[in-house]
From TrEMBL:
Name under which the protein is recorded: DUF1329 domain-containing protein
InterPro entries named in the record: DUF1329 (IPR010752)
Native source species: Solimonas marina
Source species, domain of life: Bacteria
Alphabetical list of Gene3D superfamilies matching this protein: Lipoprotein localisation LolA/LolB/LppX (2.50.20.10)
Length: 461
């Protein structure tokens, strides 16, 4: 008789044991990061049940299948609670594909190179800020490849949101009312420039005291066009960002209070600045971080989610809800190991959010699902991203270094208490002629997009 070395539940038992014991090295059969450094292949770190949706569900779901209300119970424990309800009661469908084993497809190439180069050099100081072993601001990549606690896991999300030193996202947004109709449609542009924690290892313009500049400006429709905002983040994660905005009706730039982070920037949208990348606030203005679980999860992370070649402007087909307008089509796969992290907004006494829960893929440190709860403890909103390497069977898009680009491609924010959905895509181009891209090139992006004078100029353009 042939006896299997690892029985069916071995992987899940080991993840549970790691959670209970607080053992935090990623991987089950072997430590993950030495395998990534050697060949970029994560498959030898996990048993089959954590790499194959067919094995995990004992044949109930396999790649090529579609998750619907008829079979969602087979993957209920692999979805956040809002995604499960969307499928169960709202007509959402999720396409299932093979798991990605090549970890190089889960990062921008330069960011992965920086992560490997700088592995082991990050330290938390006495208050929880991240510095190198010689006391300098972080020098690029994920600071903690094997997070030992919740703050380290959060640092991987916070220090470099989009994993590029500079990104500009051309965003097309649709806001769906409870009756399923499109209540609002916006075009806007989001730009983020890291001054520290850059993959190139440099400090931009000597700004060691800062982490990033981030701006957003709306270009459509006419009654919203010109609304623009600028966030300036300090490196010290105890400090609140400076938030300024230009509103065309007032024709001036004014400073907004910190608690504006928990309000929509324009009517109809359900996401807040606080929701960005599941890390929209400085990480030390939140607290009570705890890793509550390690588990597999379904995540939209593979190349099929990139719509280049399928749609010229990278937009997506939609389905579900009362008028078949509520959900993006996405392609999800089994992520073998996620950290499930919880935190509370300790720095915001009037925040409407009571806590957030984040599911983080340990292979790249990026979140695949995010849910917030209100002050009563009731579930409130989900923020679900989709990512892809920008290379599929139709086309390959290169980043500034000549590698296949990697970024988020779409996201959906569902306020289940109001039953309002905001869904948006990173388009190739939006109204105003702005295009998505990754890298500063020869542009003076700071003066063009990331100052108070810039947001005023963008607001009147």
């Amino acid at each position: 008789m042939w006896i299997k070395k690892y029985d069916f539940d071995y992987g899940r038992r080991m993840l549970l044991e790691k959670t209970i014991k607080g053992v935090a090295a990623a991987g089950v059969l072997a430590p993950l990061w030495p395998l990534i450094a050697k060949a970029g292949d994560a498959s030898k770190a996990y048993p089959d049940e954590l790499l194959s949706i067919e094995a995990y569900t004992k044949g109930k779901v396999k790649p090529g299948d579609v998750i619907t209300a008829n079979n969602v119970e087979a993957v209920k424990d692999l979805l956040d609670p809002i995604a499960y309800q969307q499928v169960k009661t709202m007509g959402r469908k999720i396409n299932i594909v093979e798991s990605t084993k090549d970890v190089t497809k889960l990062f921008p190439a330069s960011y992965l190179e920086a992560t490997l180069k700088n592995k082991g050099r990050a330290k938390l100081d006495s208050v929880g800020n991240v510095y190198t072993d010689n006391g300098e601001p972080w020098i690029g990549g994920n600071p903690f490849t094997d997070p030992q606690n919740g703050v380290e896991a959060m640092a991987n999300l916070t220090l470099s949101w989009g994993r590029h030193d500079y990104s500009m996202y051309a965003v097309r947004d649709w806001d769906i009312a409870p009756d399923g109709s499109i209540a609002y449609q916006y075009d806007f542009v989001w730009a983020e420039l890291n001054t520290t924690a850059r993959a190139d290892g440099k400090v931009w313009n000597g700004k060691k005291d800062l982490l990033r500049y981030q701006s957003v400006w709306f270009t459509s429709p006419q009654d919203t066009a010109g609304s623009s905002y600028l966030n300036t983040w300090y490196y010290d994660q105890r400090k609140f960002p400076d938030l300024y905005g230009y509103l065309p009706a007032f024709r001036r730039v004014r400073q907004f209070p910190t608690n504006q982070r928990f309000e929509p920037l324009v009517p109809g949208v359900t996401f807040f600045l606080s929701d960005a990348w599941a890390a929209g606030d400085p990480m030390l203005t939140w607290g009570n971080y705890k890793i509550i679980e390690r588990k597999p999860m379904l995540g939209a992370i593979g190349p099929r989610n990139f719509m280049g070649g399928y749609n010229d402007n990278y937009e997506r087909t939609v389905h579900g809800g009362p008028k078949n307008q509520t959900f993006h089509d996405v392609w999800m796969e089994l992520v073998p190991e996620c950290i499930v992290l919880e935190a509370e907004p300790t720095g915001y006494p009037r925040a409407p959010v009571g806590k957030k829960r984040i599911w983080i893929d340990v292979r790249n440190g990026m979140y695949v699902a995010y849910v917030t709860y209100d002050r009563r403890g009731a579930i409130w909103k989900s923020f679900e991203p989709a990512y892809a390497q920008y290379s599929n069977d139709k086309v390959t898009i290169k980043d500034a270094q000549g590698h296949p680009a990697w970024s988020w491609v779409a996201a959906a924010s569902h306020d289940v208490q109001a039953n309002r959905m905001t869904r948006f895509v990173q388009a190739k181009e939006v109204k105003g002629g702005y295009q998505s891209g990754y890298g500063e090139g020869s542009q003076d992006v700071y003066n063009k997009y990331l100052t108070n004078q810039a947001i005023a100029r963008l607001g009147t353009a």
